[in-house]
């Protein structure tokens, strides 16, 4: 429902109406003549305070959007009550209506304010190094890409950047929801609004404040809250059609009661009662109350839903497909073996690292770490182009180079038949070959490990009723079997050797018998994320691709939050169901009472407004749902 009044104003109005009510009650039992004399002005006050703003809202809505607002039903009922000489009943109606509107507004406001909390975390100023080497304080909004900023202990990082000097622990709870500090040194990414706990560091700005991760989070959550979920669209559509039906129904009921021989006053009173009893306030508010609360609870735990639709679809998912590398595994792979066919490991590794320097793949990062640990130079390689799912191509002064898996070797016409290389084929590790044209120069083995949280998360998903879990990887089958085995996956749930397009095709097949979620890390799997009913990106804080392609973004690397998010989505849809059943049930009961049992207007009002408030409160329970919240820090 459109509520345009500021909360505090409507609170004042409610208080005024309560005051009026007290006078009205005193007037009903005329113990005191003075109170009796105050009755009429008291009632008039209630009608003015409670009715005028509502009428204004309803009429402007009718004028602006040609929408018959539910508020209009309330006004009509109150006026009808006054006309037939039951102004006290009308006053009760207007009072309770104002109070419940205020309560709803407060509740929904609380759910919406998660976003303001995010804003408050953003620092306003930064310490920027000037060309002369001095440090000046500037507004964070003035920072430009490439500026060098000094991070002092205890201060918040002013925008996204990369550490260039110093080291220290950073509390990233604001972004990822993770309460353990992360230690950072040169080369590490840092995010706006995270807290530098100790250490003095220099960072180079990589994103302006308008583009930072937290800025995008805020945009996402705001858009998510504005977007309508399918069931929400339904309840809105229903509310509008239904208001017309109720209006017409009340007119017919009036005619029928009158025709059946009642006094016209009595017929009008009963029609007004029906109008209130049949109003769909509770039905219309039940869905947004639940969805807003769930979206906010999730955002606080570092899980961003791009809208209520994603929340509702996730609840219906019964197949989860996981990417392996960087998703189920931790993405901190390690080089475990190096085979250089000409015997010169240092030159071989430096060439490989030079080529991989242009890649964002976890394998590339592992190779870079190895080369740094060995203190080797990185060879100069240009024109690097990724071949997603295969490897990478490039060129140095001696000509073109490639690095990748056996598929890529085959494509290059290179044969992996030397016995030093064939020995690698059996390992349960990823093997990366480096070659120049048809000649293979050597290979490295890269081992990655399942994330500690993966096994628990998969188990929790199964407990939560997920029917099928599959792993999809472009890696070789032995590696996939080893990791899958550690996570408790059966061999037929493990699909290896898949190219990015194979993943997309397989997901399309899976969607034929049920809703499918794909969980990836945004490296090579944006297409699969987009194809699934719900695309979920892990560790999205640093990855733009993942944030864009996914419907749900897990900012942290903690897989168990995925299970939490799934559970939350199921709870939200259960709450929505409860609310709808309750609201429709209560309405039927009240309408039956109004039609056949002479239900008095005040009772209809209490039932109707009480039901609306209950439904909102029930939705609000989701707000405190524990997607594990980090302990607050000083
Ligand atoms: P996953 O599906 O497990 O996330 P990818 O689709 O990202 O894996 O990659 C599949 C395979 O392609 C990897 O196991 C690796 O053999 C090869 N590959 C991809 N990118 C690279 C790269 N930059 N360097 C070397 N090999 C790569
Ligand atoms: Mg991957």
TrEMBL record:
Keyword field contains Transmembrane: yes
Domain P-type ATPase A: start-end pairs: 121-221
Keyword Lyase: no
Subcellular location: Cell membrane; Membrane
InterPro entries according to UniProt: ATPase_P-typ_cyto_dom_N, ATPase_P-typ_P_site, ATPase_P-typ_TM_dom_sf, ATPase_P-typ_transduc_dom_A_sf, ATPase_P-type_domA, Cation_Transport_ATPase, HAD-like_sf, HAD_sf
Keyword annotations: ATP-binding, Cell membrane, Magnesium, Membrane, Metal-binding, Nucleotide-binding, Translocase, Transmembrane, Transmembrane helix
MF terms in GO: ATP binding; ATP hydrolysis activity; ATPase-coupled monoatomic cation transmembrane transporter activity; metal ion binding; P-type ion transporter activity
Main location: membrane
Cellular component annotations (GO), alphabetically ordered: plasma membrane
Membrane topology: Multi-pass membrane protein
Top-level lineage group: Bacteria
GO biological process: metal ion transport
Membrane-crossing residue ranges in chain numbering: 34-55, 242-261, 267-292, 580-597, 603-623
Membership in a protein family: Belongs to the cation transport ATPase (P-type) (TC 3.A.3) family. Type IB subfamily.
PANTHER family the UniProt entry points to: CADMIUM_ZINC-TRANSPORTING ATPASE HMA1, CHLOROPLASTIC-RELATED, PROBABLE CADMIUM/ZINC-TRANSPORTING ATPASE HMA1
Protein name from the UniProt record: Heavy metal-(Cd/Co/Hg/Pb/Zn)-translocating P-type ATPase
């Amino acid at each position: 429902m459109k509520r345009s009044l500021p909360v505090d104003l409507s609170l004042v109005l409610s208080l005024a109406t309560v005051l009026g009510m007290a006078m009205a009650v005193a007037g009903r039992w005329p113990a005191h003549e003075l109170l009796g004399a105050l009755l009429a002005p008291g009632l008039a006050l209630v009608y003015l305070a409670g009715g005028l703003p509502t009428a204004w809202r309803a009429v402007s809505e009718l004028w602006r959007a040609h929408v018959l607002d539910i508020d209009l039903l309330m006004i009509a009922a109150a006026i009808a009550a006054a006309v037939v000489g039951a102004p006290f009943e009308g006053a009760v109606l207007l009072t309770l209506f104002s109070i419940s509107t205020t309560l709803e507004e407060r509740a929904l406001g609380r759910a919406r304010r998660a976003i303001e909390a995010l804003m408050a975390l953003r620092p306003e100023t930064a310490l920027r190094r000037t060309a002369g080497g001095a440090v000046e304080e500037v507004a964070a909004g003035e920072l430009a890409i490439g500026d060098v900023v000094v991070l002092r202990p205890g201060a918040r990082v002013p925008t996204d950047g990369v550490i260039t000097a110093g080291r220290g622990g950073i509390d990233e709870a604001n972004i990822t929801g993770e309460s353990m500090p992360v230690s950072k040194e040169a080369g590490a990414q840092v995010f706006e609004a995270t807290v530098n706990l100790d250490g003095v560091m220099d960072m180079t700005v990589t994103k302006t404040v308008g583009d930072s991760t937290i800025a995008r989070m805020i945009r996402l959550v705001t858009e998510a809250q504005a977007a309508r979920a399918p069931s929400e669209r339904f309840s809105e559509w229903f509310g509008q059609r239904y208001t017309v039906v109720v209006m017409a129904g009340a007119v017919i009921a009036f005619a029928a009661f009158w025709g059946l021989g009642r006094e016209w006053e009595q017929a009008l009173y009963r029609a007004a009662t029906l109008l209130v009893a049949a109003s769909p306030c509770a039905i219309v508010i039940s869905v947004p109350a639940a969805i807003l609360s769930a979206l906010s609870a999730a955002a606080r735990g570092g899980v961003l839903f791009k809208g209520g639709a994603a929340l509702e679809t996730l609840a219906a998912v019964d197949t989860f497909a996981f990417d392996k590398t960087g998703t189920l595994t931790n993405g901190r792979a390690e080089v475990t073996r190096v085979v250089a066919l000409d015997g010169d490991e240092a030159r071989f590794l430096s060439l490989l690292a030079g080529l991989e320097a242009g890649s964002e793949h976890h394998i590339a990062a592992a190779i870079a770490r190895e080369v740094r640990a060995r203190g080797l130079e990185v060879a100069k390689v240009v024109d690097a182009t990724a071949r997603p799912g295969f490897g990478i191509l490039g060129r140095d002064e001696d000509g073109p180079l490639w690095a990748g898996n056996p598929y890529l070797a085959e494509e290059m016409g290179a044969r992996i038949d030397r016995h030093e290389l064939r020995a690698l084929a059996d390992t349960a590790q990823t093997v990366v070959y480096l070659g120049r044209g048809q000649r293979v120069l050597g290979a490295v083995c890269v081992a990655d490990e399942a994330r500690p949280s993966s096994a628990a998360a998969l188990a929790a998903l199964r407990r939560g009723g997920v029917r099928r879990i599959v792993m999809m990887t472009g890696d070789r089958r032995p590696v996939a079997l080893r990791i899958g085995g550690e996570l408790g996956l059966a061999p037929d749930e493990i699909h290896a050797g898949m190219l990015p397009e194979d993943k997309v095709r397989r997901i399309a097949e899976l969607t034929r018998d049920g809703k499918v979620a794909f969980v990836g890390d945004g490296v090579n799997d944006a297409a699969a994320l987009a194809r699934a009913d719900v695309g979920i990106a892990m560790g999205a804080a640093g990855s733009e691709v993942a944030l864009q392609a996914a419907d749900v973004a897990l900012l942290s690397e903690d897989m168990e939050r995925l299970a939490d998010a799934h559970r939350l989505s199921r709870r939200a849809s259960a709450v929505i169901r409860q609310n709808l059943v309750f609201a429709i049930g209560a309405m039927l009961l009240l309408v039956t009472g109004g039609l056949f049992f002479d239900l008095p207007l005040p009772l209809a009002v209490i039932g109707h407004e009480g039901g609306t408030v209950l439904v909102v409160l029930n939705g609000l329970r989701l707000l405190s749902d524990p997607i594990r919240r980090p302990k607050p820090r000083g």
